[in-house]
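Can anyone check this?
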Amino acid sequence: MILLPRNAARIAATAAFALLAGCAQMNQPAPPPNPVAYNPPAAAVTELPAAQATHYRMNFAAGGTRLDAEGAAMIASIADTMRANPGLMATLIGSADPAGTDASNMRLSKRRAIVVHDALRRGKVPESRIDTRWTGERQADATPELVLRTVEIILH
C-alpha cells in the first residue's frame, strides 16, 4: 500500500494547473521580429581612408524608389568608372527617413538599394562587384530627412 501525504491531491492539482498554463503559453503566436538591417554597413567599408573610397549619394523622393534623370546619369557614370577599373567594388547602402514604421522603412530602404543595384547591373557591372545593403531608418535624429532618403554608393 502506498501512503500519500494529506495534501497530495492539492499538490497534484497545482502541478497539473502549472503544466496546462505552460502549454497555453506555448500555443501563443510568437511576436513579430523587430526589423533587422540586412548585412549592415561594415566598419571596414565605412572607415576607409578618403584616398581609398569615393562616396556618392543617390537621393529619392519621400516614399519613392524611382531614379530621376540625374540619378540615372550618375549611375551610368559610376558603371563606366567600374568597367574601366576592374578592381573597384561598389557598396550600396539604402536608407529611409523616420516616417513610417520600422518594417516599412526597412522594405523601402531595401527597394531603393535594389533599384540602384539593378541599374548598375544594366550598366554591365558584374554582380560579384556589388555589395547591396539596407538599414531602414537608423540614422541620428539630427540628420535631415532628405539625407536619409538615399542610397549611399561607396566605390572602393
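Reply from J.R.: I decoded it. The two ends are 82 Å apart (CA to CA).
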